[in-house]
Design goal:
mainly alpha, Phosphatidylinositol 3-kinase, Chain A, 65% helix, 0% strand
């Protein structure tokens, strides 16, 4: 950065016979080149502290590209970028067409299903009429049938047939009319939303094209000023050589004026070259930031906007079908559960991620545009030379202020988008999918006004466009800001007072088009936050029930959480909890290992672990390279404050229970270290991209510290349920009936793999080894 600046200062001034008039303060002093020599023309490599010549170029050692070749290659790069951007829109259009094709098949299925249901209803109606005619024709013969109990059963079957006619007629109307119209609305809304979002994408493309055109213009200006600077330098050398050959003092005085003029011209062209190079480098950073921002953020957001409400609308349509099925009550419970899982699993984020991964070649981030230096220009970074430092400092301050204003405006736009999304989702998530009224008085579900939705939709897309363009502008300005800050050095960062030691939660990218949770979330393999939000259970039933059972019957159970339970019992408990039932109401003390096993299984199968993956590094930093356990606890107190409130409450409850369990370690052989060794893989799994062997000790030590110091890490003076110790001991029923070896009937139900695991876990040497790894 300081090389060219130092070379400007090192150039000597050519003496003149007469004093010159004072120069204005706004124009730089003319610079003189040293006499040409072998040493001055041959570039040398110097350290950053040693000034190098102002004309430090290597015309012989390096072969620079010609200007025409550089412009031609740049045009080819721009063409490739244009082609990729156009291909992205084409692929997105193909994606929408694929979704609509799938939707058309679903729609065709329900149309045919309506015909089948109507034919079935007609056949049942014919059957019912034939039975009625037979009854009337044989009325005299059937007079004695009323005394038979089977007649009532037969009448019930006939009446049931009549009800089936009504139900299947309604099902035909639901499938053929209401759902068919609903799918037509979805197709119309999806196409309209795609057209509007495509316009947003084209606007983003135009914005990128403008920046690329600016880059082309800046690059041409840079090469032009570099050429002019070299020409002025050569002319100054030539006139200096001529002056050196003149021996007459009078001619030297006359020649000195020409030299001074050449010096002024050389200084002017060199300053222009400096500015042009800085502008060229800043525009390159701006273009690269714009392209990266568009490919990594704007395209996924564009997909989210295109698909906003698509999955929810389909789910609501299917719910209309489910409502009819539930009112018919013909034993289709398996079908209903399957469809509930199907629309419950609709996830825009997962669909988007899979689609982007499947088409990674098209949606990958474009290649970074590299700086193409002019012949002889060795500087490839933005420099704050003395001649332009004040101007750059002023531009930097202006850019800082503009960035602050833009970011504030950007945050307000996103808040508006969130509010608009909520309003738009209220219209999408209407209650007209419930067709229960059709089974009562044939009232039709009322559709909401579409004009209001279109107004909100237009406003939402407009705000999304502002959000996309403003975020791209911020990315470009931030790139320029950062490179200018680096060039200006400590002066630009003097006002920064950020505390680098403060632990912060990793910032997640903002998501456009968040869909609400549909149906009841899964217990095993689901998200704990979603389950708590939907069920409104501060402590999920599986956790509270298992903890309560172990508290009452398993505190003295040797090897609790270490000895595996019976897999048959664990599966039974799992199925019951998944249905919302509590299978541990009448549990006995002999099932404690299975109770602990199903609780471990629940934590292990959570889609997002109890210790969230994005907080893994924050938790590990609390335990690594700390001088004492007190400092570790202090760090953990900061980190747990960053957790979502429901997760904090669950952690406080569960770790208080584990601490209570360690109070009986003399009997159950499970102290804090042993519990941490057994539960760490389920509570805090190590991410796949990290060294499993290196982090396993850290996770175990972290869990052990939280168990032993939970009362300091999780204060109990807040709202939410708190674990309570039950000071009672319930004898295990039938314990005296065991044989001398203490083998119960349930303990014989372990699988061979469980026995092998049990044999290895019972080794006390392992516990001793784990205890020796304690660092406190």
């Amino acid at each position: 950065m300081a090389t060219s600046e130092a070379s400007l200062k090192s150039l000597p001034m050519t003496p003149t016979s007469a004093p010159s008039s004072p120069q204005p303060t706004t124009s730089p002093l003319p610079l003189a080149l040293p006499p040409p020599s072998t040493a001055s023309l041959t570039p040398t490599t110097s350290s950053p502290s040693t000034p190098s010549p102002f004309y430090d170029d290597k015309p012989i050692e390096k072969c620079y590209k010609k200007e025409k070749q550089i412009l031609f290659e740049f045009d080819q790069t721009v063409k490739e970028i244009r082609l990729q951007l156009n291909d992205q829109l084409k692929y997105l259009e193909q994606r929408i067409e694929t979704q609509l094709a799938i939707l058309a098949e679903i729609q065709e299925y329900f149309r045919r299903r309506a015909d089948v249901e109507l034919d079935y209803a007609k056949n049942l109606d014919n059957l019912h009429k034939q039975i009625g005619q037979r009854h009337r024709a044989q009325k005299a013969r059937r007079e004695t049938w009323s005394s038979q109990s089977i007649t009532k059963l037969w009448d019930t079957v006939v009446q049931d047939t009549r009800m089936h006619v009504k139900y299947h007629t309604i099902m035909s109307d639901v499938c053929g009319k209401y759902m068919f119209d609903k799918f037509n609305e979805i197709v119309e809304d999806t196409r309209r939303m795609f057209t509007k979002c495509k316009a947003v994408g084209l606007a983003s493309h135009e914005d990128i094209y403008k920046v690329l055109n600016e880059l082309k213009s800046t690059m041409a200006t840079y090469h032009q000023y570099q050429s002019e600077s070299k020409q002025a330098e050569q002319k100054l050398r030539n006139i200096q050589q001529q002056m050196a050959k003149i021996k007459s003092v009078k001619k030297q005085k006359a020649m000195s004026k020409r030299v001074e003029k050449r010096q002024m011209k050389y200084t002017e062209t060199k300053v222009k070259a400096f500015k042009a190079r800085n502008d060229y480098l800043m525009v390159i950073e701006s273009v690269n930031a714009a392209l990266q921002k568009y490919c990594s953020d704007d395209v996924p957001d564009l997909i989210d906007c295109m698909n906003f409400g698509f999955h929810t609308s389909i789910a609501k349509s299917i719910q209309m079908y489910l409502s009819a099925q539930e009112n018919i009550k013909r034993g289709r419970q398996m079908t209903i559960e399957t469809l509930n899982r199907a629309f419950g699993d609709l996830d825009t984020v997962v669909d988007k991620q899979k689609y982007l991964e499947a088409n990674a070649s098209v949606f990958t981030i474009t290649k970074r545009i590299k700086f193409e230096p002019h012949k002889g220009d060795e500087v490839s970074t933005v420099n704050a030379q003395v001649l332009i430092r004040d101007e750059m400092q002023s531009r930097f301050v202006q850019m800082q202020n503009r960035l602050a204003g833009l970011k504030t405006e950007h945050d307000e736009i996103f808040k508006t988008i969130e509010a608009t999304e909520q309003s738009l989702m209220e219209y999408i998530n209407t209650k007209n999918s419930d067709v229960s009224d059709l089974f009562k008085d044939l009232n039709l579900p009322q559709n909401t006004s579409k004009s209001t939705r279109k107004e909100i939709e237009d406003y939402y897309v407009e705000k999304f466009k502002e959000y996309t363009l403003s975020s791209n502008l911020i990315a470009r300005l931030q790139a320029r800001h950062d490179i200018m800050q680096k060039a200006l050095g400590a002066a630009a960062t003097a006002g920064s007072t950020e505390d680098k030691n403060l632990i912060r939660r990793p910032i997640k990218p903002r998501q456009i088009g968040r869909a609400p949770i549909l149906g009841r979330p899964r217990l095993f393999g689901g998200k704990l936050l979603d389950y708590i939000q939907v069920t409104e259970q501060a402590i999920p039933l599986i956790i509270s029930s298992c903890v309560s059972a172990i508290n009452r019957l398993g505190l003295h159970n040797q090897g609790i959480f270490r000895v595996p339970g019976a897999q048959v019992d664990i599966n039974q408990f799992k199925d019951a909890f998944e249905k919302g039932e509590d299978p541990l109401v009448n549990i006995t003390g002999r099932d404690m290992n299975s109770v602990a096993g199903v609780l471990k299984l629940y934590f292990r199968e959570l889609k997002e672990p109890l210790f969230a993956r994005d907080m893994f590094d924050s938790f590990i930093s609390c335990i690594v390279d700390v001088e004492s356990e007190d400092k570790c606890v202090e760090n953990l107190c900061q980190v747990v404050k960053l957790l979502p409130r429901p997760i904090f409450i669950v952690m406080r409850y569960f770790f208080a229970f584990l601490n209570h369990l360690t109070e009986y370690s003399d009997e159950n052989m499970m102290d804090a270290s042993n519990l941490a060794s057994c539960l760490a893989p389920s509570l805090m799994p190590i991410p796949e991209d990290k060294d499993q062997v290196q982090y396993v000790t850290h996770t175990i030590e972290l869990i052990r510290t939280i168990i032993t110091r939970h009362d300091e890490i999780f204060p109990a003076n807040d709202d939410g349920p708190v674990y309570e110790k039950f000071a009672i001991t319930i004898p295990i029923e039938g314990e005296e009936d065991e044989d001398d070896e203490g083998i119960s009937e349930r303990s014989m139900r372990h699988s061979p793999s469980d026995d092998a695991s049990q044999d290895s876990d019972y080794c006390t040497e392992d516990f001793n080894l784990l205890n020796e790894t304690d660092v406190w």
